Amino acid sequence: MYVAVKGGESAIENAHRLLADRRRGDRSLPAITEAQIVEQLSLSVDRVMAEASLYDPGLAALAIRQARGDMIEAIFILRAYRTTLPRLAVSRPVDTAAMRIERRISATYKDLPGGQLLGPTFDYTHRLIDPALVGEPDVPEAAVAEVTGEPVMRVADILAHESLIELEPRVDAEPGDITREPTEFPMPRAERLQSLARGDEGFLLALAYSTQRGYGRSHPFVGEIRIGLVEVEIDVPELGFAVSLGEIRLTECQMVNQFKGSAEKPPQFTRGYGLVFGQSERKAMAMSLCDRALRAAEYGEDITAPAQDEEFVISHCDNVQATGFVEHLKLPHYVDFQAELGLVRRLRANYDAARAAEPEDDSFEEAAQ
Amino acid sequence: MSAVTMSEAGTNFAYLDEETKRMIRRAILKAIAIPGYQVPFASREMPMPYGWGTGGVQVTAAVIGPDDVLKVIDQGADDTTNAVSIRAFFRKVARVAVTTHTAEATVIQTRHRIPEHPLIEGQILVYQVPIPEPLRFLEPRETETRTMHALEEYGLMHVKLYEDIAHHGRIATSYAYPVKVAGRYVMDPSPIPKFDNPKMHLSPALQLFGAGREKRIYAIPPHTDVRSLDFEDHPFEIQRFDEPCALCGARNVYLDEVILDDRGGRMFVCSDTDNCESRQADAQKETAA
């Protein structure tokens, strides 16, 4: 006799044990530590912090370890933790002009105040796999210039002096919080930027790429990319002044886009903006291209491409949402499938009955053709 | 925080903090006040993936109290892995009593089915919803579909159903079959088989729908008129099975098809495991007596 499958509970338990076993791997090798991940896989840590919207390298490293190195899973774990945290205060806007710069490059000016600073970049390495890295080779100390702490002016400000770039209106209102409020379209730009900042790097990269290939072209130039440490401050009303909470590493990209002008706006450069936790130039650049593409309506540009479509981009850029919904297809669907099975059988019976009722001169017709 | 409100897992009672629960309850109240209307809410990231029932879990967390008795089903069954996992979650974070018996439960969270045993006043049925917008596959844009609901412009849906009839001779929607609630809003009943649609009509239980990824909550208050969309000459009809459940002999219930071998052997058994087991136990008692 048939007996329905039981024992979901012990199956889950055993699966989790097996997962823990595989995560640990060969016990004769030392277990990897969070500190090692923070120090030696720091760009992974940065990505997890950026897309989880939580700046905590230690926890991000733990999430990466717990996720066996699966980035989206790690992002998901860190976000699920973030969601339980109270939101105690809103910081003052971070001042990236006062950033302690580690890297700063401009593609629009050969030389500029503050100079071009390459920093720790892969850009000019030759991508030859390096056997010298195997084991524990000695790595010489880096040679770094003295940090002057002088503010480094932003390229957008240079153009602003000539009124050649659009002015960002100063907004003092507290911005919305996409993690605490329901999504509603159309979105204010501040919230759109929040969505993009935690959006999937790969998805935004592909969309940004599509704008370069004619799907919503925006004539972009990298005005500036800067990476470094900025201070986070909050206002304490009781004290009457701002208090520093510490420093975070950020990557900022100011994309400068040509704009020929419209009935309402003069010819000028327009901006696409990217700001990401940690060192993540690819993400910041992709974000700024997507931001600019999504501003098409503001400039009266035709909306023809996916990257310009706010609902399309924002609704699909979140990888935790996307992976959840795609992967949920592996959950049981037998009730719905049964319904479809019954329907297809009935449609099939109708079809077969109709075929059987047709006169059998098909072969003759075919021969005549 | 007192020991009463802290759970075993070190989280607040039922996982979510009180502010979040309050926000969700406000959305639920609004949803009850406007039956079938999708209320946007600030859905939280839950410790289970989107698509696994984060909306249902948040609704359950917002309505459940320490004295509630919780039942969780997936595909009608209490022992499917996701139902087991969600039930374990609430046992851990809310320490509530759990049950598999529909009649004993005060809160029932479900994915894809409505229990066969009729629900009664005071019970809450919480549906997990993947795509709350019934018009989504006709119009992908939220800004458009919200306007269509506001203007009660449901012609597109009727055209779709009519096209089905023109092509197939019948309406080719077998689950997630759209309904009209209280004569106003067209609503997606979540992917339940249309077999279950009539159970929503005038149900004495409160029916709540949570869509986590899409950030929407909607509701059918008790004793509300719920009509499946149809045409006068093509009235709505539910699935019928030719044979009874092979385990308990029930007729007029929804059945799962179970494949027995690779030679086309198959049998049909109840999708609602609690209903099936209760009937088998009753039959045994009768034989014993």
Shape descriptor of chain B reads: globular
Instruction: Count every helix of chain B, treating DSSP H or I runs of 4 or more residues as helices.
Output: 7
What fraction of residues of chain B sit in β-strands?
15-25%
The largest beta-sheet of chain B arranges its strands as 1-9-8-5-4-2-3
- How many strands of chain B? 12
Give the N-terminus to C-terminus distance of chain B in angstroms. Answer: 54 Å
Largest interface: A-B, 50 and 63 residues
Bin the strand percentage of chain A.
5-15%
Main beta sheet of chain B: 7 strands, mixed
Q: Enumerate the spans of chain A where pLDDT stays under 50 for 5 or more consecutive residues.
A: none
- Count helical runs of chain A: 13
Low-confidence stretches of chain B: none
According to CATH, the fold-level topology of the largest domain in chain B is Rossmann fold
Rg of chain B over CA atoms, rounded to whole Å, is: 20 Å
Domain count of chain A: 2
Report the end-to-end length of chain A measured between terminal Cα atoms. Answer: 57 Å
Cα gyration radius of chain A (Å): 27 Å
Task: Give structural notes.
The complex is a heterodimer of chains A (369) and B (289). Chain A has helices at residues 8-24, 34-40, 42-52, 57-66, 71-82, 155-161, 189-197, 201-212, 281-294, 310-316, 319-327, 334-357, 362-368; strands spanning 100-105, 220-236, 241-259, 268-277. Chain A is of the alpha+beta class. Chain A has two domains: 12-82, no CATH class; 96-125 and 145-324, no CATH class. In chain A, strand 2 and strand 3 (241-259) form a beta hairpin. Chain A is globular, with a radius of gyration of 27 Å. In chain B, the strands form three sheets. In chain B, strands 1-9-8-5-4-2-3 form a seven-stranded mixed beta sheet. In chain B, helix 1 packs across helix 2. The mean pLDDT of chain B is 93. Chains A and B meet through helix 1, helix 5, helix 11 and helix 12 of A and helix 3 and strand 11 of B.
